[in-house]
Amino acid sequence: MNRLSAIHVPRPARLFVPSLLALACVVPAVAQKFDASNWGKNTAGVTLAAHEGSRDHTDRGTVLWYNLIGKGFPDGTVYNLWRMLPGKSPEVLIKGVSFDQRGVLVCSGKPGFCSGQEPDDPVNLKTTAALGEEKHMAVISGDGKSAGFADAVPFPIEATDKGCKLSVVRMSAQADVMLARASGLKPNQGITVAKRYGYETGSGKYTAGPDGTWESVVSTQNAMQPSGKATISVEGGSCLVSVTFDYGPESNKPQ
After folding, report:
1. Least confidently predicted of 57-66, 79-88, 204-213
2. CATH number of 157-251
3. In the chain, where does the domain assigned CATH 2.60.40.10 lie?
4. Three-state secondary structure of the chain
5. What is the tens place of the pLDDT at every residue in 142-178?
């Protein structure tokens, strides 16, 4: 998987548009543990959002930049920035982060907090991504009492039809394990889910939830054809949504 790194660059003239030409220093990751079962559970009253900045198209893929915006985090608290890669345990990316008056995640430079190139230097996240790859980020206090989580799918694999939507997100680098999500269905509606990996096919009957959504992990790790085209479709009532994507070693290329 393409890795998410944290980079400090001089504060841009416009908020959330970091200069890709500036010299940058990578902040080393710090090895710590976190209970992955609690990932995604925001503390009451706390929200965290990923704000995408400029995209730089290079011969090695599109370089993406993000800033994190927090609300409801107690002031004066030392936080850590975490990430979680698919199939991996959560890990700390930067220790000692905080939020400025606008809610932007920064390195304040104050005692006990991380330092950038100037006071309250925004933490700019630099990464690349493959199709259907989801970035998982979190800001958590040292005592674990305040936590916010943010996700971003820069290049989604999705389709819509008559108010229904189907999206798939990678849970493995080779896209042989995917999380499929459908929405816009009728409450408790019966649906048919079909999948094809290479020349192997299968289908099953399921029921949408009371909110008209359906979600399931689709795994074909033991497929006889190790790479090729895959298709997942959901049909229910008047809706038929279908997505097609590449799987296998060559599918994990930055866009």
Report:
1. 79-88
2. 2.60.40.10
3. 157-251
4. CCCEEEEECCCCCCCCCCCCCCCCEECCCECCCCCHHHCCCCCCCCEEEEEEEEEEEECCEEEEEEEEEEECCCCCCCEEEEEECCCCCCEEEEEEEEECCCCEEEEECCCCCCECCCCCEECEEEECCCCCCCEEEEEEECCCCCEEEEEECCCCEEEEECCEEEEEEECCCCCCEEEEEEECCCCCCEEEEEEEECCEEEEEEEECCCCCCEEEEEECCCCCCCCEEEEEEEEECCEEEEEEEEECHHHCCCC
5. 988 999 999 999 999 999 999 999 999 999 888 989 9
